[in-house]
From TrEMBL:
Protein's UniProt keywords contain Transferase: yes
Domain spans labelled Rhodanese: 126-220
Species for this entry: Phreatobacter stygius
Lineage, uppermost ranks: Bacteria, Pseudomonadati, Pseudomonadota, Alphaproteobacteria, Hyphomicrobiales
GO molecular function terms listed in the Swiss-Prot or TrEMBL record: oxidoreductase activity, acting on paired donors, with incorporation or reduction of molecular oxygen; transferase activity
Pfam families in the cross-refs: Rhodanese, UPF0176_N
Function: Catalyzes oxygen-dependent 5-hydroxyuridine (ho5U) modification at position 34 in tRNAs.
Catalytic reactions of this protein: uridine(34) in tRNA + AH2 + O2 = 5-hydroxyuridine(34) in tRNA + A + H2O
Cross-referenced CDD domains: RHOD_YceA
UniProt name for this protein: tRNA uridine(34) hydroxylase
UniProt entry keywords in alphabetical sequence: Oxidoreductase, Transferase, tRNA processing
tRNA processing as UniProt keyword: yes
Length: 256
């Protein structure tokens, strides 16, 4: 049996996030889904797996059902497959942020950088005046990254703010392009850079996963594999499973 995996997020005001927790958990459980979903006042983030029918019904419930009342109309989605169930349980949490950054003034629902789709990414990062930054954690970067990308060498996403203060200057770095696994971290990072005076900020829509799904290996600027926060461990071009299937308890979303 093949399972369908859905990685999803959206920055959107959810002042009633606490009240959404129990009914969302019930929807997931009734569909037989496993994985992790995080709710916060700033939005939703998660990765879940189940049958193709269960995933389809779940996404329909998020987008069109009464629980979110049409607020998830810009839900960022990436789909992939798993030969075995990549999660051990279902977890639905309420947290202060859907991806931990530690700066409450950063609001991607209000302002973000310019989205660049997978087909336009090679052209952007090939420009000599573009500073390309990998916003992921150091161990993720070690598994694979884009040619020429800067590794901030951070252990957690919240360390990105220190990297910016230490290494970046809006007067010097006039054109910045960022990427991450699925798009959520670089979207938040782009909002942060704009708030710090950087003028031309771009980020890869759908992240590395969308790039590996859409770009053929012969045209790719990606080297290595992409770490994912489930028991598949890593994916390659075409989102093919590459990992040994080692358990990664507590790491099912890009919350750090």
């Amino acid at each position: 049996m093949t399972f369908r995996v859905a990685a999803l997020y959206q920055f959107v005001a959810l002042p009633d996030a606490g009240g959404l927790l129990a009914p969302l958990r019930e929807i997931c459980a009734d569909s037989g889904l496993k994985g992790t979903i995080i709710l916060a006042h700033e939005g939703i983030n998660g990765t879940v797996a189940g049958t193709a029918e269960a995933i389809e019904g779940f996404i329909d419930a998020l987008r069109e059902g009464p629980l979110f009342d049409g607020r998830l109309d810009r839900l960022e989605l990436k789909f992939s497959a798993a030969a075995a169930m990549p999660f051990k349980r279902l977890k639905v949490h309420l947290k202060p942020e859907i991806v931990t950054f530690g700066d409450i003034g950063t609001d991607p629902a209000r302002r973000t950088g310019t989205y660049v789709d997978a087909t336009g990414w090679n052209r952007l990062i090939g420009c000599p005046d573009t500073l390309v930054i990998d916003t992921r954690n150091q161990f993720e970067v070690a598994m694979g990254t884009f040619d020429g990308a800067v590794d901030p060498r951070i252990g957690r996403f919240s360390g990105f703010r220190d990297f910016v203060a230490r290494e970046l200057d809006p007067a010097k770095h006039r054109k910045v392009a960022m990427f991450c696994t699925g798009g959520i971290r670089c979207e938040k990072a782009s909002s942060y850079l704009l708030s710090r005076g950087f003028q031309e900020v771009y980020h890869l829509r759908g992240g590395i996963l969308k790039y590996l799904e859409e770009i053929a290996p012969a045209e790719s600027r990606w080297t290595g594999e992409c770490f994912v926060f489930d028991e598949r461990v890593a994916l390659g071009h075409g989102l093919a499973e590459r990992g040994p299937g080692a358990a990664l308890e507590g790491a099912q979303t890009s919350d750090d």
